[in-house]
Amino acid sequence: MNCGGRTPATVRCKYCSTCLTVTAGERAVQCSQCCGVTRVVRRSMRLPLLPALPRPMAPAGSFPCSRSKKRAVLIGITYAGTRRGCGELRAPVNDVKCMRHLLCQRFGFPSDGIIMLTDDQKDPFRLPTKDNIRMAMQWLVQGCSYGDSLVFHFSGLGAQVPDEDCDEADGYDEAICPMDSFQKGPILDDEINEAIVRPLVPGAKLHAVVDACHSATVLDLPFFCRTSRTGNWQWEDHRPPSGACKGTSGGQAVLFSGYSDGKSKFSVTPQAYATVGAMTHSFIKAVECEPCGVTYGRLLTSMKAIMTNGGGSCNLQGPIGAPVSKVANFSGVQEPNLSSSEMFDIYRKPFVL
Questions:
Q1: Where is the Peptidase C14 caspase domain (predicted)?
Q2: C-alpha span between 62 and 82 (Å, rounded)
Q3: Where is average pLDDT lowest: 36-45, 204-213, 247-256, 333-342?
């Protein structure tokens, strides 16, 4: 339904009927009143046929020139001052700091091979806007080659949007919400898959850790692993009914994300500094506690035990380890999941970055 003039285009929020401005070329828009995400279906809405905006290109010098074999994009968003009546998340910036320390100290990632996008930075190209996240994803995989080890980490809010491509078994696309999601909309899993999964060439590997609600399949990977009724980790075939290709160009992509039954209460602790996200915390703590060469299966089991224990001891190594006193389960995650571009024996394959 077109509820405004022809320029700019507007649609009604699916949940609260607020009139929302639609950015040209975007497929979804998020409401600043209720935080709900509305799909922009142009074939059924009499919206003006605006041309899609070109994907942003990073200006020279805005991102590192280093082409290390180990590269990472780490994103943490508190949404300070943007969520009306909902407050801000306290953990995401700390999550990014902890993840950076882990990558540098444990896995030898060079500091100039890591891009951190957080909404407390002064550099406009280091803010987690939709355009900057898109440019960072492009930087991460650009020119990827055999032996590359890439990491994508997101800590913030996620969303679900009704699927219109018939490529989702549950009928919903997942999405991550940039800091300007209320102005430009979320980034859908279809775009994330196209941006950082499809370009992976043989011998290149991507690991993603997403600490957000509705994040279980946010990379749109075709195979999904979770615990069965017997307690064992078991693969499920989630290849889209439409037959669309969601795999790589010969490389491998693996996502650590979280499952929620929708009944758990999100909890954000009030301390401004002493919090980390539950999903990020369980991943980092499990990696720190397990020996090098731990299998994916053992790592997942360790993460699940940490979550079940409510985080246990929150002491983490690194720049904010000592002050952390509480784990903020802002994403409502109850247990970890794994998804991948290909199935493998998780009880034999070692986790290596």
A1: 69-341
A2: 25
A3: 36-45
User: Residue 215's CB: how many other CB atoms inside 10 A?
Assistant: 30
Whole-angstrom Cα distance, residue 282 to residue 304? 8
For the stretch 217-228, pLDDT in tens is 899 999 999 888
Which helix (DSSP H) or strand (DSSP E) does residue 176 occupy?
strand 172-176
List the structure tokens of 227.
């615990």
Task: pLDDT band for 168, please (50, 70, 90 cuts).
Answer: low
The token pair that represents 312 in the structure block: 């246990």
Q: For the purposes of burial, counting CB atoms within 10 Å of the CB of 25, is it exposed (0-12), middle (13-18) or buried (19 or more)?
A: middle
Tens of pLDDT, residues 92-115: 999 999 999 999 999 999 999 999
Whether the per-residue pLDDT at 330 is higher than 70: the answer is no
Return the sign of the alpha-carbon dihedral for residues 212, 213, 218, 224.
positive
Q: Are 216 and 337 in contact (CB under 8 A)?
A: yes
Q: Which amino acid is at 290?
A: E
Overall residue count recorded for the chain in this entry? 353
What is the rounded CA–CA span in Å between residue 166 and residue 244? 9
**Percentage with pLDDT > 70 across the chain:** 77
**Where is 141: in which H helix or E strand?**
helix 130-141
Locate 209 and state its tokens: 């850790």
Q: Alpha-carbon distance 37 to 32, whole Å?
A: 10
Cα 55 off chain centre by: 19
Biggest CA–CA distance in the chain, Å, is: 61
CA 134 vs CA 131, 191, 196, 230: distances in Å: 5, 9, 10, 40
Give the whole-angstrom CA distance, residue 22 versus residue 42.
11
